[in-house]
What we know:
This protein has five helices and five strands, in the order H-E-H-E-H-E-H-H-E-E. It has helices at residues 2-11, 37-44, 77-92, 97-100, 111-123; strands at 15-28, 53-66, 95-96, 131-137, 143-146.
Amino acid sequence: xxxxxxxxxxxxxxxxxxxxxxxxxxxxxLHSKALSDEENxxxxxxxxxxxxxxxxxxxxxxxxxxxxxxxxxxLNITDLKEYIEMAxxxxxxxxxxxxDVPYFADVVSTTENVAVFIWDNLLKFLPxxxxxxxxxxxxxxxxxxxxxx
Length: 149
Ligand SMILES: Nc1nc2c(c(=O)[nH]1)N=C([C@H](O)[C@H](O)COP(=O)(O)OP(=O)(O)OP(=O)(O)O)CN2
Ligand SMILES: [Zn+2]
């Protein structure tokens, strides 16, 4: 009986979630080309100031997948670190999001859109269907989650 339990248990597919945290610094201004100057000021307030402002963004990247019985891993975090470097740090760290990152030339650099940018960039490197969530702490109080929907 004990032997059967053991056999069934080892055959079971177990799903794990692996999260890696990464910080980056960037400045930006909330401004939409689809809105008038008055609307930009009314909607974005102090965040529409032409001088911009900066954040130390903290990003949590979560990957979902089968825990490989041979390696014990969903994916190797060493690989995930490299993907994060290419998908987040190289394009965004110490950048002016609106001026230095072409994606934000016509996309408002809200944290929601930064999360979408990071999601789409990570998809280029991660195994298919493995990215579960991108969570960004723009400040201690402002947190955005994007799950690819
Ligand atoms: N839906 C969103 N709303 C806002 C975003 C955003 O990305 N998505 N971003 C901003 C500004 O970028 C701004 O930096 C946030 O400022 P603020 O709320 O003032 O930041 P704090 O929480 O740190 O400030 P407190 O004064 O302590 O509340 C605005 N809106
Ligand atoms: Zn901001």
